[in-house]
Design goal:
The complex is a heterodimer of chains A (474) and B (336).
Chain A: H1 17-23, H2 30-48, E1 63-69, E2 72-77, H3 84-91, H4 116-124, E3 125-133, E4 138-143, H5 145-148, E5 158-160, E6 170-178, H6 180-185, H7 194-205, H8 207-211, E7 215-218, E8 221-222, E9 229-232, E10 246-252, E11 255-263, H9 270-278, E12 287-292, E13 295-301, E14 323-330, H10 351-374, H11 378-385, E15 389-392, H12 393-398, E16 406-407, E17 414-417, H13 439-450, H14 457-473
Parallel strand pairs in A: 1-7, 12-14
Antiparallel strand pairs in A: 1-2, 2-6, 3-4, 3-6, 4-5, 7-8, 9-15, 10-11, 10-17, 11-14, 12-13, 16-17
Chain B: H1 12-28, E1 38-41, H2 48-57, E2 61-66, H3 69-78, E3 84-88, H4 91-97, E4 104-109, H5 116-127, E5 135-141, E6 153-154, E7 157-158, H6 161-176, H7 194-217, E8 219-231, E9 234-245, H8 249-256, E10 272-274, H9 281-288, H10 296-303, H11 311-324
Parallel strand pairs in B: 1-2, 1-4, 2-3, 4-5, 8-10
Antiparallel strand pairs in B: 5-9, 6-7, 8-9
Classes of the chains: A alpha+beta (474), B alpha/beta (336).
The structure holds adenosine-5'-diphosphate (ADP) and magnesium ion.
Chain lengths: 474, 336
């Protein structure tokens, strides 16, 4: 590409810098671009191949620190650095040459296209320096405004860092001369919501990795991941008084798959349901989370994408707010994973995803049915589900607990666990009493009964009924 | 809106908060023409703030919103000035329909702790409609326990403070969802720390809602004054903000002199903690004679008794009074 002279008989077909700097960066959201940089840190950890001291915390000891302000963005990690050879061969190329797939062939990375780091830099600013401190050597690569506008220069100088007293082996990327729109978004918290939004995004998409020991800081604030757990009744509860998750595990075409779906929280009471419908929460722990090689690519999805509202499954509705599921795909060959290029979405045409979706819907349906069965009898259901204990995601997905698994079509490497779910007792069925009263009347009775006029209307009604039931039976 | 019938002009802390607000507006008046503003608030039965704003600045366009029927009738009966119009409306409906060409000062004086999420959503809906120069004041209930009052039990006994904070935090987490600011834990649900967390939630709600306008129009929300104060059994948090243009800040601070005011909170981090003791007239007069300048020790010696359970609490009370005494209300008995 260095030879730009155009032969009179041939059409120019090479790329321009603008294509990468202005065009390619349009399609990616700033936050996704930053997530790409974090992905690289995690890939770096994979590449160190150090066997972890604690198998449940393979990323323990590793961290990445992001800081930004109106004049500068930086990300620094202790994940081993970009190997010199990799830097020389392709780390700074736009796009990964096919033969380089071999390089990370036996580790479960998420990098595939060879564009993340460069795209993130171009998205943010006009000047950057990448410093890598590896076991072998320390070096830096500068990307200048001049280089960014020069269509004839497709190489970058690697400079040795002589004074390599840096205690951590890792990478540091600093971007300056920020693009105007970017600088504005990087304004301090209290003016810009960017820091908070990025915090939330990272805490969702890196939740699995953070739970496995990785630490991420944004402007010195550490990011915590939310828990994922599902309710599971203790072993001594009878079959018709149980709450359990639905589980599925298999290996398909080089991809390990594990799935769990169930109740992460109890059904809502009628009054809670009312409040929920009035003021929708912007964060709900309900829905499907999909994880590819530890990276969350879909977070709490409640749409057709994950099987809601299709093939017999009802559409998502607040009644189902307690239902959550997670699917984990794992492969040493990132190309086999059903992930989109931005790593925030699944590739819906992927065979492996289409296959698993049947089981996702199968699981979902059991729990939507359960809430329908118990609708109007929530109190009794909450007695049962209130006794169930939360079981953490790791145990759900990879736990060794002996269970009554069913092999799918007699295949040994594909099995599911079909849960026993509580059913209402039929000999004394529960009926719903429904009536409306004016707010002022409800408040009067609430004050009479509880000396608090803000008690939930449902509780006021129930207290009235209970009082009369006691009289009737005495 | 509980509190609608409480005579809050008797409450010294709330009164200090209100007088600080008036003082703030006096300073803003050097930069924006406060007398030309419209004032919107929940006036309740007493409409104290309406009277104050009218007497200080001569505002002529004033709207009071009240949703409760009886409180509304009482308010109508009490309307102290002809220029006050009152509407029977919920704040949410008012905000949905809000569309003002007139520069406006709005005070959303919320009382209920249970509706925090709805309140934050209303604030979000309102800020995106504000114009440059508009002033917004918000009051929120900052009493963590008010979210779910009453005795609670845990494993058959009364719960401990830690158990209570865990429970309240979970509740806040479900109720607030993404409004829950980052970096907080159940420990922050103590009465002392909670206002800061609420201020963080308000900051996040406001900046998130306003980010689109900030990036496209080059305007932003500037915090001005925040206060936490005890009001009877409740702790309240108030904050006041103004909409400014990017790059206008220095000029604004110069002209208003806010930098030298001593009570301003120009970020979302700090707030005034108002907890002045309730004083008899005689006490007030004796203390004031030593002010400004008198030390807490001097004052306490002069009085010869403690305000709190011990000397430390007394010193705190007097220090707080020293900071806010200029805004302390003067009560008089009035005979009609
Ligand atoms: N912080 C880092 N630590 C280790 N390796 C890194 C780091 N940043 C980038 N790299 C490596 O540099 C190469 C180029 O990164 P990138 O442009 O994101 O493409 P991709 O990850 O798709 O291959 C990748 O091999 C990546 O793993
Ligand atoms: Mg990458």
């Amino acid at each position: 590409m260095t030879n730009k002279k155009i032969n009179s008989e041939r059409a120019a077909a090479g790329p321009t810098k603008r294509f990468f700097i202005d065009m390619l960066t349009r399609d990616i959201d700033l936050m996704d671009a930053i997530l790409d940089l974090l992905d690289n840190c995690v890939d770096g950890v994979q590449r160190t191949r150090k066997p972890p001291t604690d198998a449940t915390k393979p990323y323990a000891g590793y961290w990445a620190k992001i800081s930004f302000g109106t004049d500068r963005f930086s990300i620094e990690d202790n994940c081993g650095g970009i190997p010199f050879d990799l830097a020389r061969r392709y780390a700074f190329m736009m796009g990964r040459p096919k033969e380089e797939d071999e390089a990370d062939a036996d580790i479960p990375t998420v990098g595939m296209y060879g564009i993340g780091m460069k795209r993130a830099i171009f998205k943010m600013g006009r000047n950057a320096i990448v410093k890598s401190y590896t076991k072998e050597r320390a070096f830096s690569v500068s990307i200048t405004p001049k280089w960014m506008s020069d269509d004839s220069d497709w190489e970058l100088d690697i400079e040795n860092i002589r004074d390599s007293r840096r205690p951590n082996l890792g990478t540091e990327i600093v971007v300056t001369q920020l693009n105007t729109g970017i600088a504005q978004r990087f304004a301090e918290s209290g003016v810009s919501s960017f820091g908070k939004d990025l915090y939330n995004l990272v805490s969702h998409h890196f939740s699995f990795i953070i739970r496995k020991g990785f630490r991420v800081f944004i402007n010195d604030e550490e990011i915590f991941a939310r828990q994922f757990s599902l309710l599971w009744s203790e072993d001594d509860r009878p079959k018709d008084e149980r709450i359990e998750p639905y589980l599925y595990r298999s290996v398909k075409d080089g991809v390990e798959i594990s799935m769990a779906v169930g109740f992460h929280s109890q059904m809502l009471t009628d009054d809670e349901l009312d409040e929920e419908q009035k003021t929708k929460r912007s964060r709900e722990d309900a829905g499907w989370t999909i994880i590819c090689n530890d990276r969350v690519v879909v977070y709490n999805d409640k749409t057709r994408l994950t099987g809601w509202g299709e093939a017999g499954v009802p559409s998502y509705h607040s009644q189902f707010i307690g239902i959550a599921g997670v699917v984990v795909f794992r492969s040493n060959d990132a190309w086999k994973l059903p992930v989109t290029t931005t790593k925030r979405g699944v590739d819906t045409s992927s065979d492996v995803f289409l296959y698993i979706k049947d089981y996702m819907r199968d699981g979902l349906k059991r729990f939507t049915n359960h809430t329908n069965t118990w609708k109007g009898n929530v109190e009794a259901e909450r007695q049962i589900s209130g006794r169930a204990k939360p079981v953490q995601m790791e145990d759900l997905l990879f736990g060794e607990k002996t269970l009554d698994w069913t092999n799918v079509q007699n295949r040994i490497d594909e099995k599911k666990y079909v849960p026993s779910l509580a059913v209402p007792k039929e000999h004394d069925p529960v009926k719903i009493i429904r009536f409306g009263k004016s707010l002022s009347e409800i408040k009067d009775v609430a004050y009479y009964l509880f000396e608090d006029e803000d008690v939930a209307p449902g509780d006021v009604g129930k207290a009235c009924f209970d009082a009369y039931l006691k009289k009737a039976r005495s | 809106m509980s509190g609608a019938n409480v005579p809050y002009h008797m409450r010294q802390n709330k009164s200090v908060d209100r007088m600080l607000f008036i003082d703030l507006l006096t300073r803003l008046n050097r930069y924006i023409p406060i007398p030309d503003y419209r004032y919107v608030s929940f006036g309740a039965a007493f409409l104290e703030d309406f009277k104050l704003l009218h007497s200080h600045f001569g505002l002529r366009s004033m709207l009071s919103i009240e949703m409760d029927e009886q409180a509304f009738l009482r308010q109508t009966f009490n309307l102290p000035l002809r220029c006050i119009q009152n509407f029977r409306q919920k704040s949410g409906d008012f905000i949905d329909r809000y569309n003002s060409e007139t520069p406006t000062i709005i005070w959303l004086d919320y009382a209920s702790a249970k509706e925090l999420r709805e309140q934050l959503q209303e604030i979000q809906a309102l800020v995106v409609k504000l114009r440059v120069g508009d002033v917004l004041k918000v009051t929120l209930n900052a009493n963590p326990e008010a979210m779910s009052p009453g005795l609670h039990h845990y494993d058959g006994r009364q719960e401990t403070v830690d158990e209570k904070r865990d429970r309240l935090f979970k509740q806040l987490d479900t109720r607030l969802g993404d409004f829950l600011p980052t970096g907080y834990s159940p420990d922050d649900l103590s009465p002392i720390r909670f206002p800061k967390m609420l201020l963080g939630a308000s900051r996040d709600a406001i900046t998130t809602a306003f980010d689109g306008r900030r990036l496209s129009e080059g305007v932003y929300i500037q915090p001005l004054l925040s206060c936490a104060y005890q009001d009877g059994p409740h702790q309240m948090l108030t904050f006041t903000v103004i909409v400014l243009r990017d790059g206008e800040k220095n000029d604004f601070l110069d002209k208003t002199g806010l930098n030298n005011w001593g009570y301003q909170n120009l970020d979302w981090e700090n707030f005034n903690k108002i907890s002045v003791p309730a004083l008899t007239v005689k006490e007030k007069i004796s203390i004031d004679r030593l002010l400004p300048g008198g030390s807490a020790e001097e004052i306490l010696t002069q009085l010869g008794f403690n305000f709190g359970r011990n000397n430390r609490e007394s010193v705190e009370a007097v220090e707080n009074y020293k900071k806010y005494y200029r805004y302390y209300p003067n009560y008089q008995r009035v005979m009609f």
